[in-house]
Amino acid sequence: MNIKEIIVVEGKSDTVAVKRATGADTIETNGSAIDEMTLVRIQHAMEMRGVIVFTDPDYPGRRIRAIIEERVPGVKHAFLEKKKTIAKNGKGLGIEHAKDADIQEAIRAVYSVEDRPAIEILLVDLMAAKLIGHPEARRRRDRVSELLQIGQVNGKGLKKRLEMFRISSEKLREALAVLDKEEN
């Protein structure tokens, strides 16, 4: 793969996996202990080559992603489903456990909002789609997030993530159609 952006990962093992799968350059955050100097390096990388944030699909990974997004607006995001990051022995979760093909797919599906118009998602639409405020909401939300490759989110975060990545109503409806078809 030929990737011009620098990929931000959490640690050394993630760097090894990303380099093996893509050959891309990385910046490590050293886990959730992301410090000021690392944020300055990420900002510089964004200005020079662009940045793709590729963190683990867990709470620390989401926290790191949010810190970077707040400090360095405009970064791109790549996501891997939790099930694709589980260690073979079942005791561990992270990008370093993913298959090369899964890492490559996540990087190819990277989200950039540069060419997409801003959108507003209405809570009433999310409720009607049974993505919030419904007994099956969490399961449905997890699957829709997986289909849209936007990372796992809770009910509150779904609206924000859909708007942040400017997921169109049409794209959301397509994902819901796949979900509904799977359920029937």
Verbal overview:
This protein is of the alpha/beta class and 184 residues long. It contains eight helices and four strands; from the N terminus they run βαβαβαβααααα. The protein is globular and about 45 Å long. 33% of the residues are buried. The model has no long low-confidence stretch (mean pLDDT 88).
List keywords for this structure.
184 residues, alpha/beta, four-stranded parallel sheet, 48% helix, 7% strand
Topology:
Blueprint: E1 6-9, H1 12-22, E2 26-28, H2 36-48, E3 51-53, H3 59-71, E4 76-77, H4 100-108, H5 123-128, H6 137-148, H7 155-164, H8 169-183
Parallel strand pairs: 1-2, 1-3, 3-4
Helix pairs in contact: 1-4, 6-8
Strand order of the largest sheet: 2-1-3-4
Task: State mean pLDDT (0 to 100 scale).
Answer: 88
* Number of contiguous helices: 8
Kindly state the percentage of residues in helix.
40-55%
Could you tell me the radius of gyration in angstroms?
16 Å
From the structure provided, what is the oligomeric state, counting identical versus distinct chains? single chain
Q: Report the sheet with the most strands, covering strand number, pairing sense and barrel closure.
A: 4 strands, parallel
Counting DSSP E segments of at least 2 residues, the number of strands comes to: 4
Order of helices and strands: EHEHEHEHHHHH
SS-based structural class? alpha/beta
Note the beta-strand portion.
Answer: 5-15%
Q: Regions with pLDDT < 50 over 5+ consecutive residues?
A: none
Distance between the termini: 38 Å
* Dominant shape: globular
